[in-house]
Each structure stands twice: as structure tokens, then as C-alpha cells.
Amino acid sequence: MKNIAIFASGSGTNAENIARYFAGSKTVNVAVVLSNNKKVKVHERVNRLGIPSFAFTRDEFAEGKPVIDKLAGYKVDLIVLAGFMNKIPDTLLKAFPGKIINIHPALLPKYGGKGMYGMHVHEAVTGAGEKESGITIHYINEQYDEGEIIFQATCPVLPSDAPEDVAAKVHALEYEHYPPVIERLLTGR
Ligand code: GAR
Question: Which pLDDT does position 114 carry in this prediction?
Fold first, then answer.
């Protein structure tokens, strides 16, 4: 059994979707969810499914050790960022080399980097008159949104689309593709 930890900062619909996908799996277990905010909805979403969740302060995340110790307690094989808005500190990168992945709500290398998260991304995409957007699943390295790309999928952007419309299309792609990509990475299937 491979254990994953999901990091999420907000609503956590992706975290819940991943947890539901692996509920009952014999190969992948969502062991724990970590957040940088104790008040956000992701806790309720995953606790309902029997998955423990914890919140760490910005300083604890930046230091790394409290987070690494918590992950060690769950024998985590892969860290899955799903709407996690904090930078991953070097200590955590070194403790989990090549074992941290992220989903970005656009087609990297476009619309990545500092400040490009959540609705800001979709506002930039519609503002630039792009004809398509999508998702990028990638490894995390020291730079924002620059790690090796694992998977991309696209969706059309219509001239009449508001940022919220693009967000809905991108979320649908995330729900469809993130869990099976995680499964493939961990099991080769
Ligand atoms: C998702 O669209 C995810 O791709 C994005 O935040 C949203 C979280 O939604 N992540 C980033 O922008 C990271 N740079 P959720 O909380 O409902 O899963």
C-alpha cells in the first residue's frame, strides 16, 4: 500500500475528489491531509471520509521539521498538492526528492509563477483572449511552477467565457485526471 498526503489551502474539492477515488483502493491510501489554515473547508470534507487532517502555521511550514515529522508518522510515499498556496520549503523538498507533485490550473509554462493561483490564473487567461486553457500536473522543484511536467489536458476558452466559466472547465479536468495520474505514478498502472 502506498500512502499519500494531500496539502490543500482552501475549499479542497480536489482533495475530496482524490480521497473518494482512492476510498477502498488496495494500492493507494490517502493517509493524511495538511493545510496552512485550520478554518478552511478541506478539513470537514476529508474528516467526513475518515481521513485525519492537520493545520500548520506559516512558520511551521517554512521551518519544515514539524511537517516532516507529521508525514513520517504516516509513512508518506508521495505529497500531492491540491490547491495548496504556500511555497514548499527546501527542507521538505530535500526530505521528499521527486516525491512532491502539484496541479496548476493552466497550461504551464504560461500563466505560472508567483501570484498565479486560483481565480487569478483564469482572469489572466480570459483577459489575454486565450482560446484554450487546461491543467498541468508537475513535479515541484525550487522554482514556482517550473518542475518537470507529468501531464497536461486542455479545454476550450470561448470569447464569451468569464473567469468563472474557465474555472469550472478546469476543475472538471482536474477531477477527471488528477486521481488516475497519481495512481499511475504510484503503481505504474
Ligand atoms: C484548483 O483549481 C487548483 O488547480 C488551484 O487551486 C484550485 C483549488 O481548488 N491551484 C493553484 O492555483 C496552485 N497554484 P480546490 O480547493 O477546490 O481543490
Answer: 85
Cell output for 75: 509513512
Ligand 1 pocket: which of 174, 176, 181 to mutate (most atoms within 8 A of CB):
174
Please compute Rg for the chain using Cα positions. 16
Q: What is the pLDDT of residue 142?
A: 81
Q: Is 171 a catalytic residue?
A: no
Region of 144 (left: φ > 0; alpha: ψ -120 to 50; beta: rest) is: beta
CB-based contact 18:176 (threshold 8 Å):
no
Residues of the chain with pLDDT under 50: none
Which residues does a 6 A CB cutoff place in the pocket of ligand 1? 8, 10-14, 82-83, 103-105, 117-118, 121, 170-171, 174
Distance CA 189, CA 174 (A): 19
The three cell numbers locating residue 174: 482536474
Q: What is the phi/psi pair of residue 13, to 5°?
A: -65, -35
How far apart CA 93 and CA 98 sit, in angstroms, is 8
Nearest CA to ligand 1 atom 14: 117
Residue 9 per-residue DSSP state: -
pLDDT of residue 138: 97
| Residues counted in the chain | 189
Which domains occur in the chain, in start order?
1-97 (3.40.50.170), 102-178 (3.40.50.170)
Q: Are strands 28-35 and 2-7 parallel, antiparallel or unpaired?
A: parallel
